[in-house]
Amino acid sequence: MIGIHATRHRMHSRSNLPGRGAQRGAILIFCLVFLLVLTTMGVASMESTVLEERMAGNMQDHNAAFQAAESSLQAAESWLIGQTLWPATSSDGSTTVWELNAIDPDDGDALHWWEDADRQTSAWWESNAEAVAGVDGLASAPRYTVEELADINAGQSLAIGTGVQNRVRVFHRITARGVGTSNSAVVRLQSTYVKAYE
Predict the structure, then answer these.
(1) pTM over 0.85
(2) Which run of H or E residues covers position 173?
(3) CB-based contact 79:96 (threshold 8 Å)
(4) Other residues' Cβ atoms within 10 Å of the Cβ of residue 162
(5) Distance between CA atoms of 26 and 23, rounded to whole angstroms?
(6) CA 37, CA 197: separation in Å to the nearest integer?
């Protein structure tokens, strides 16, 4: 009987060993810190994913605006190709071809007209530029302006002695503007198109 009582006493004293409660608290703190690290990593990963999605959306919007401006540029060149007679110019764009520097009201400010803040708005382009129809899915239709830069009717040496009359070569500046699926993406393109007229 005495041996059993001594064994029970030793087992009871083992359960009261110092440091057991302290070890349980350390595991809890470790788990909380680990959970905090995992949460921080998850939030950072979500923010990175959202940022990448926004970047991809902006790139897609910019690409749509670029394609719209390109289609507008091609539409203007196609219009010039279809002109058999030298198109008349106007100071207000009513003939589709603007006179040189007619769009720029202040040619002494060292800015081209397309750099002027007043001529970068959608309202100005809607009032003064030609619209291109048939381009869907955009915030507004792509538009273009055509300016006559210069005309040359001399220097065609191949025609000398052949009886062929010199043809007037006219230099046109085309400025195209395209908008993406939102108004925040705007692309402007320019080209110089040369056409010979009788």
Answers:
(1) no
(2) strand 168-179
(3) yes
(4) 7
(5) 5
(6) 74
